Amino acid sequence: MMAKKYLSIFLVSIFLLSFANEADAQRRGKKKKRRPSETEQTTSSSESFFSNEKIAYEVLGTLNFSALAGYQALVLGLKPGASYKILPWLHAGGNIKYQFYFANVPQAPDIQYHDFGVGTFARAVIANQFYAQFEYDFNFFEAQFVEREFLPGAYIGGGYSNGFGRWGYGAQLLFELNEELRDYDNFPLEIWVGFHYNFNSF
User: Fold this and answer.
1) For the chain, how big is the Rg over CA atoms in Å?
2) Residue 24 in contact with residue 52, Cβ under 8 Å?
3) Considering only the top CATH level, what class is 53-197?
4) 3-state secondary structure (DSSP) of residue 160
């Protein structure tokens, strides 16, 4: 009888210890599955806000001819830029612009000038390929002036982009709203062609 009594006590003790260990394990598991803190949630949101998926890049170029000091000048231009996708169809960004002018002058030194500019733009994407754009540039011109001149101005226009995956190609046409810009370029339009990366909203 005594043996049965001690055996019963031993089994009950094991059962109680097992129950206590299981309860403790569950309590520890709940602690590990705690909700993220506000700092962690903010960090996650920031990473999403500044993720590469929301940034688009482009490199555009131009080649044309322009009247310069009575001569026909070759104009080469480069305009790299980047934009942030506020919404899948609404982008805002900036660019830098460089243009090189070269005119051959018979029996005299050739003419070479360099124009620079920086700009900001807003872009509305239509059907994932076309877009309308408003741009405002801060230009520093040299070609038509004795000294370098500052000439800001606004542009309005649009463009087209197509391609495969994240890479694309396209063209852009912008109308110069500033009369001084049109007088300087002797042509009211800027025409650019080039490449895009991550332009599409998908």
Assistant:
1) 33
2) no
3) mainly beta
4) strand
User: How many C-beta atoms lie closer than 10 Å to residue 7's C-beta?
Assistant: 10
pLDDT of residue 16: 47
Q: What type of residue is 18? A: S
Hey, what are 28's tokens? 């520890």
pLDDT in tens, 9-28: 544 454 444 544 555 555 65
In sequence order, which residues have a C-beta less than 8 Å from that of residue 136 and are 6 or more positions away? 119, 120, 121, 152, 153, 154, 155
Instruction: State in Å, rounded, how far the first CA of the chain is from the last one.
Output: 79
pLDDT tens column, 100-145: 999 888 888 888 889 999 999 999 999 989 999 999 999 998 866 6
Structure tokens at 91: 């982008």
Helix (H, G, I), strand (E, B) or coil at 25: helix
Is-above-0.85 flag for pTM?
Answer: no
Cα–Cα distance, 25 to 99 (Å, whole number): 70
Residue type, 107: Q
- Provide CB contacts within 8 A for 24, sequence distance 6+: none
Give the pLDDT of residue 187: 84
With CA atoms as reference, report the closest residue to 190 among 58, 66, 57. 66
Element spanning 100, H or E: strand 90-103
